[in-house]
Amino acid sequence: MHFDELPSQLVAAKPILEKINQAGYEAYFVGGCVRDMILGQELHDVDIASSAYPEEIKQIFDKTVDTGIQHGTVMVLDHGEGYEITTFRTESTYTDFRRPDSVTFVRSLEEDLKRRDFTINAFALDADGQVIDLFNGLGDLEKKQIRAVGDAKERFTEDALRMMRALRFASKLDFTIEEKTLEALEALAPNLEKIAVERIQVEFEKMLMGQAAGQALLTMVEVDLLPYLPGQAEFVTNEHLLYLASHLQNRQPQSLAQVWTLYLATIVRPAVDLQKELRSWKLSREIMATVGRLAPAIQKADSLTIWDVYQINDLAETLLAVLKILSFSPTLLRHIEELFFNLPIRSAKDLAVNGGQLIKAGLATPGPLLGKQLSAIELAVVEGRLENEQEAIFDFVKEQ
Ligand SMILES: Nc1ccn([C@@H]2O[C@H](COP(=O)(O)OP(=O)(O)OP(=O)(O)O)[C@@H](O)[C@H]2O)c(=O)n1
Ligand SMILES: [Mg+2]
């Protein structure tokens, strides 16, 4: 396969390949950028692999930064862009299922591509636009399948995160996972326990946002992955994954807040500890707060009051998006939307009267009682029993 025209990011980086070639070494675009170009998708990062050793790359270019020199990566700065160039390498034994004990630089492209995860991630593209496809990745793109390069068990033993990546790419591209690769996934799933939660989290999020997220969840159930993921076994069950899978067929979450609200706030079990689950996934404070606030609202979506809606009004979009994925009726969604839309105030700051004004008017004194008075005003205004207007509020306080 040959490309006469390259995407703009690769056109911009092509002089780098040419300069390395002129110095007598090989250089190729590799990894996700080649896969995404062939698929006609947007590229996000441009990775370059070369037969030149890091020291040799540094001699070829004026401006370089040692971003990961022990792994063979040097960053070349060119027209305000930074390009990571990684020396062809093989990785020797993996004792911890995550990082190679050492990397060995090699001069052969094939040796480098052989240690990559999937055939569709193991293309190389040269400066002339020629695709090098040593493992029939093009055939797998055609078949729409994720297949490990060489022996799947070896690839997953080298880096257990690759099992999550398999699910992520299957979901993102709506591909199936090839049989041997799936068998290896099932056999080696326990190794995922050794992977840092943060890395699993990122792949899991991307998986749930992919177009075939429902199918990916079914696959997770099929290979029994759940016990090896972060989180509490007693909290999320395979039944829960199946429930989510059935709702993710047509619509997927569009943000991280939606992902985690969908995944965790939908579990209707009074005894479980949501905070514990959130912590075991090491989610950001912001996501934890969002899920914590939306969980009760999701569970009583059929009977939300205006006060409930007022308390989550900055999360309205997330709530509605998640309820939509969960197939709540359009009538109910419209009703909740209207509640949001018709809120008399958005926050306590919108009240026509503040504490200082109540004190000045002789209707309150500083202290805990003042807080209670303001809360009563806020509730009455939100519930539409009290007009948000100074005189009305003063009268309301006098009557209390
Ligand atoms: N666990 C991993 C991670 C990466 N790679 C290889 O390194 C390339 C770049 O990795 P990365 O940027 O993490 O993934 P991409 O495939 O580029 O996907 P994305 O679109 O998310 O960047 C991959 O294509 C693959 O060849 C691998 O073999 N095993
Ligand atoms: Mg990438």
TrEMBL record:
Sequence positions that bind CTP: 32, 35, 116, 159, 162, 165, 168
Domain Poly A polymerase head: 27-147
InterPro entries membership: Bact_CCA-adding_enz_type3_sf (IPR050264), CCA-adding_enz_C (IPR032810), CCA-adding_enz_firmicutes (IPR023068), NT_sf (IPR043519), PolA_pol_head_dom (IPR002646), PolyA_RNA-bd (IPR032828)
Catalytic activity: a tRNA with a 3' CCA end + 2 CTP + ATP = a tRNA with a 3' CCACCA end + 3 diphosphate; a tRNA precursor + 2 CTP + ATP = a tRNA with a 3' CCA end + 3 diphosphate
UniProt: Mg(2+) binding residues: 45, 47
Cofactor names: Mg(2+)
CDD domains the record matches: NT_ClassII-CCAase
Record Pfam families: PolyA_pol, PolyA_pol_RNAbd, tRNA_NucTran2_2
HAMAP family recorded: CCA_bact_type3 (MF_01263)
Note: A single active site specifically recognizes both ATP and CTP and is responsible for their addition.
Function in brief: Catalyzes the addition and repair of the essential 3'-terminal CCA sequence in tRNAs without using a nucleic acid template. Adds these three nucleotides in the order of C, C, and A to the tRNA nucleotide-73, using CTP and ATP as substrates and producing inorganic pyrophosphate. tRNA 3'-terminal CCA addition is required both for tRNA processing and repair. Also involved in tRNA surveillance by mediating tandem CCA addition to generate a CCACCA at the 3' terminus of unstable tRNAs. While stable tRNAs receive only 3'-terminal CCA, unstable tRNAs are marked with CCACCA and rapidly degraded.
Subunit field text: Homodimer.
Protein name, UniProt field: CCA-adding enzyme
